[in-house]
Specification:
seven-stranded mixed β-sheet; two-stranded antiparallel sheet; about 45% helix; alpha/beta; about 300 residues; globular
């Protein structure tokens, strides 16, 4: 990863709320960007997003066809992006969070992107239903399923946390999980993943609509990517231990605040204790400036596609 890992905790080790009865299935991860000349490195953040955009907005065949054509790849990826309107305070910037989640899944978890979700949403006219990312992580002969949630918020507050837990509650219903499984098998990017045929066969069998969702709950992981505007980051000019310590303290407090809400909302889901949750946090100094710049770049590439 190009960003610094400052929190990587099993939630059970930092939990301070005794009302959260199920702790073992939760983790907290945080990345920080650094500073240069007294300013947060916006250009580094933007470059990271654009370096990884193709994984989310193009399917395997398109990525392969444009493998060594970076400009055409950007144009094709931008063409598939459906941007939230300026009046959509909740959705605006969500594309950035989705791309960041895909990049972290690829670079940190070494995951295989089996459904390019932005591509799928655009081509099915399905604006925000289901998981924001779908991946498979392979470890030897074993594999795990990852259904992600991605948000870009103006702050970390209770209202935003409730929004996430409500979304996860819906996404983890049996019919929604079966739909995600059918999409994985339907888009067929799995066939180009380089996996052993025997493992592909096992995955195909496990994800079949004939198999009970109960049988795969233990391999389901939910990464929750939150990029958010942060007053600590906004007021900082130097990457140093004081900044890192302030972020760590804030995130441990916020993790406890988030996970009590998640536990209260989701604990009645059957086999909730078997599903693994990964809270992934990334602070930025100003949401609007980042989103505006991203939108401007997307619009530029969209115009290129029309020429």
């Amino acid at each position: 990863m190009e960003f610094n890992i400052v929190v990587s905790d099993d939630f059970i080790d930092i939990c301070s709320n005794e009302k959260i009865l199920i702790k073992e299935n939760k983790k907290v991860l945080s990345f920080l960007n650094d500073f240069e000349d007294g300013k947060w490195r916006t250009s580094k953040f933007n470059s990271f997003i654009w370096d990884n955009i193709a994984e989310t907005a193009l399917n395997y065949q398109e990525r392969k066809a444009l493998f060594d054509k970076s400009q055409q790849k950007m144009v094709a990826a931008a063409k598939n992006l459906r941007l939230a309107s300026e009046s959509d305070e909740i959705g605006r910037g969500s594309e950035i969070a989705e791309i960041m989640l895909y990049a972290i899944m690829k670079n940190y978890y070494k995951a295989l992107p089996v459904v390019p979700k932005i591509y799928y949403k655009q081509n099915s006219q399905d604006n925000a239903k289901g998981a924001d990312s779908v991946h498979i992580v392979v470890n030897g002969d074993e594999y795990s399923l990852w259904f992600g949630e991605a948000k870009f918020f103006n702050s970390l507050n209770d209202s935003n946390f409730y929004q996430i837990t409500n979304s996860l509650y819906n996404a983890l219903q049996t019919e929604k999980l079966k739909k995600e499984n059918s999409i994985i098998l339907g888009v067929r990017d799995l066939q180009y993943s380089g996996l052993d045929e025997d493992l592909i066969g096992r995955i195909t069998k496990d994800l079949s609509s004939q198999n009970s969702i109960d049988n795969i709950k233990k391999i389901i992981n939910v990464p929750i990517m939150i990029i958010h505007e942060c007053d600590i980051t906004k007021g900082e000019t130097t990457y140093n231990e004081d900044y890192i310590d302030a972020i760590k303290k804030m995130y441990r407090d916020k993790a406890n605040s988030y996970f009590i809400k998640q536990f209260n909302k989701l604990n009645e889901i059957h086999l909730y204790n078997l599903i693994n949750f990964h809270l992934i946090l990334f602070p930025v100094p100003e949401k609007k400036r980042i989103v505006d710049k991203f939108v401007k770049q997307v619009e530029f590439y969209k115009e290129e596609a029309e020429d």
